[in-house]
Amino acid sequence: MDSLIHNIHLATMTGEGYGEIMDAALLVRAGRIAWLGPQVDLPADIGPVERIDGRGGWLTPGLIDCHTHLVFGGNRAHEWEMRLNGATYEDIARMGGGIRSTVRATREASEDQLFISALGRLDRLLADGVTTVEIKSGYGLDLENERKMLRVARRLALARGITVRTTYLAAHALPPEFDGRADAYIDACIEWMGVLNSEGLIDAVDAFCETIGFSPAQTEKLFTAAKSLGLPVKLHAEQLSDQGGSGLVARFGGLSADHIEWLNETDIAAMKASGTVAVLLPAAFYCLRETKVPPIAALRAAGVPMAVSTDCNPGTAPVTSLLATLNMACTLFRLTPQEALKGVTLNAAKALGIADQTGSLEVGKRADLALWQISRPAELCYWLGAAPLVRSWQSGNQ
Ligand SMILES: [Zn+2]
Predict the structure, then answer these.
(1) Residues, CB-to-ion distance under 5 Å, ligand 1
(2) I want to staple 254 with a disulfide (CB 3.0 to 4.6 A). Which of 223, 233, 341, 360 is the partner?
(3) Max alpha carbon distance in the chain (Å)?
(4) 237 Cα–ligand 1 center, Å
(5) 160, 314, 312, 163 alpha-carbon torsion, rounded to 10°
């Protein structure tokens, strides 16, 4: 049945500021936003609807976590504890730790095991009002196991009735069987990409462009192949050094450059020109105790849209709260609460190429909604550890 949510304030996330409408109502028809505005302006002839009293709360777009590695086997708590007990990076590498331990655990896990562990993490995100999640592969690093991860991502969407956008990230790390043969591995990634794309498992393509990852030339080869399949690209770029990866992704008209602590001015201009979103990942910055902050003021001055995401992963960001990440974006990166909230709504939708469907409260968009018991939108960024969500809807369904 269609529904009318009334006795609410709206943060539409359109225009300047939060796009606030006080003492408002919002009408949902067939899963889409059919009307919104001040309650006094509500048309009299809306017909029979389910009336939902928002009790003076705030309604925002459902939140979007646009960069996660939510599907993985095992976790790295043991290594984390070892490091805090004084073990060096070399000690941990010698015992087969780091990303390779996650690759091993992911390969060993069955599809059902991966699904169950990821579902627990997904439910934590949903408790923070998330209605759309991006999920990357990248711990399988061979055809069979990359497929397994992407299939789990698709199953998660069905299990919880939410939107999941899948990203193919085989070029995340070099698997042991390709030691010393990174070029050959990129060729294999390209071959698997064709197969998995034909199975409908890939929405976008990503890589880790870094001195300890893949070179700009290798990334470009992967992107060229992605483009020939009509797949949009995005990139883990400029996290630890300036490789010019953000400029590269902009040249391909890519959706987003993610991390970008070491982003340079030239590439900021390139991102602005191509409409590439800057995805900020303050939780990884926090967990790694980094000190180099992304060039927020320059991005702001250039008008590059900024998104914020958890980067949920077992190595550098074991984080399953997008609201906590909002707080980190404000505290560590000095985003304004309005910028941070736009970063998990409209700009996160842009980073996934779905801003025409979701990410703001506008007539015609999907009724992806979150109702909060808060007194002002900034509270979503202000608290650490609060649980202000009253309920959420995906396409109008609770
Ligand atoms: Zn990542």
Answers:
(1) 311
(2) 233
(3) 71
(4) 10
(5) -30
